[in-house]
Design goal:
heterodimer, A: eight-stranded antiparallel beta sheet, B: Arc Repressor Mutant, subunit A, 2 domains, two-stranded antiparallel ribbon, about 70% helix
Chain lengths: ~160, ~110
């Protein structure tokens, strides 16, 4: 039984909340968010290859990630890292480089809360520059579609079965 | 001018109007009575809601009544559901990764 992902986007405000619990201690969940080798294994969208241009995961650091399709040009997104307080919190900015103009930056706060039984509750809070920016971000998640998501997960699972740890 | 369900619900007064007529069918004047703003302002909001397809206005005898079109509001919940699914698929992958990381940690502890 999978843990449920809860998304909240109240109409007319520029905030977005994502919540999810994990069956792992928060040190591990935090690590999966900050270690480049681990991050690429789960953060990328299904139909694109994710690569890390750089990730300096510390207070005052910065990052730039790339999403590349099999053919053609990819797109990047980047931000500065305002705070990394392991294993409980990270705060950073996010800007998608594919926008027609610069300056559409959002602020993301991720908190990792320890739960009983070595579990973790992740809460991501995003604040966008405008309601339109927030709605655009949600709509882009929709455009990527859902049909291929399970195929990608299946492929990853198959790979892990073939390569037992 | 953008006229869709998201523009309809972007304004707090319009959200209140939707809530109000979702519970009872009202005339535009009946709607205006529930607000402190002018009838003209409410009339404009009702016009926008009608153009966005959120409400329909039906003539009954001498009065016009506002009805909510609940199917239009479903567009909003679908919109967020697909966004959630895109994160679900990422978190599913993270679940598998975390399980793998925990197995490794257990192995290391055993070998110590």
């Amino acid at each position: 039984m999978k843990n449920k992902t809860k998304t909240t986007a109240e109409q007319g405000v520029q905030e977005l909340f994502i919540e999810r619990e994990f069956e792992a201690p928060r040190e591990l969940v935090f690590k999966a968010f900050n270690d480049p080798e681990l991050l690429v294994q789960w953060l990328g969208p299904r139909d694109l290859t994710m690569s890390i241009d750089h990730l300096d995961s510390r207070t005052g650091g910065s990052y730039r990630f790339m999403h590349c399709p099999a053919t053609g040009e990819g797109f990047g997104f980047n931000g500065v890292i305002h705070e990394v307080t392991g294993p409980e919190r990270m705060i950073r900015t996010f800007e998608y480089e594919g926008m027609p103009e610069r300056g559409h930056v959002s602020l993301e706060t991720a908190t990792f809360e320890p739960l009983i039984g070595g579990r973790t509750k992740l809460a991501i809070h995003c604040v966008f520059k405008s309601v339109a920016d927030r709605d655009g971000m949600v709509a882009s998640g929709m455009e990527r579609g859902v049909t291929d998501s399970h195929e990608r997960l299946d492929a990853l699972l198959a790979k892990m079965v073939n390569q037992p740890a | 001018m953008r006229r869709d369900v998201f523009q309809a619900i972007a304004d707090p007064t319009r959200r209140q109007i939707i809530n109000l007529i979702a519970h009872q069918t009202l005339t535009p004047n009946g709607v205006a009575d529930s607000f402190d703003v002018s009838r003209q302002a409410i009339s404009k909001h009702i016009q926008i809601l009608a153009e966005c397809g959120i409400i329909s206005i039906k003539q009954q005898g001498r009065e016009r009544y506002c009805y909510v079109q609940p199917k239009k509001l479903d567009e909003v919940s679908d919109w967020l559901a697909d966004f959630r699914k895109s994160w679900e698929s990422r978190f599913d992958k993270l679940d598998d990764l975390l399980a793998k990381m925990q197995n490794k940690t257990d192995d290391n502890n055993k070998s110590k």
